[in-house]
Structure to design on (161 residues):
């Protein structure tokens, strides 16, 4: 039983027709990431304690940064997430990659369950609004890329304030 959090959070889970190793590789490969992350580069060596930095595709400015908190390839990755130029403490992103068990709807074959948890926002967070709109596009782009080999081609439009 989970205890409800009093802080806002974003959770997204989906099944992807791939293997844990291929999903991990897509999530951590600097050449692949821009194809599903709205063209932005996300750079890190993804080992515990390493920096993570995301650069805007248009002007190569730092968009957000953080630090890898936990790295267990190909099953779990946790990193902090601090948006550049915002006076808000870092939040926390967790990727969970599980070999799909047979769910109630039937066998999954070569599929993994991918769960993204973005949490540790302050109660008055403004950043959660942007990530709540961004993550579904990123994950949909990732799923499409892994299942079809083609990018989804979504473009990011920042929320107006």
């Amino acid at each position: 039983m989970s205890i409800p959090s009093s802080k806002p959070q974003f959770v997204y889970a989906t099944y992807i027709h791939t293997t844990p190793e291929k999903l991990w590789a897509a999530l951590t490969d600097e050449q692949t990431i821009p194809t599903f992350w709205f063209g932005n580069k996300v750079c890190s060596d993804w080992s515990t304690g390493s920096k993570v930095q995301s650069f805007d595709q248009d002007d190569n400015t730092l968009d957000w940064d953080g630090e890898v908190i936990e790295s267990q390839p190909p099953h779990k990755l946790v990193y902090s997430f601090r948006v550049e130029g915002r006076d808000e403490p870092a939040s926390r992103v967790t990727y969970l990659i599980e070999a799909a068990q047979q769910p109630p709807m039937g066998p999954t074959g070569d599929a993994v369950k991918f769960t993204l948890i973005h949490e540790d926002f302050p109660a008055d967070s403004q950043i959660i609004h942007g990530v709540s709109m961004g993550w579904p596009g990123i994950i949909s782009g990732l799923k499409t890329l892994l299942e079809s080999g083609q990018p989804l081609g979504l473009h990011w439009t920042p929320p107006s304030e």
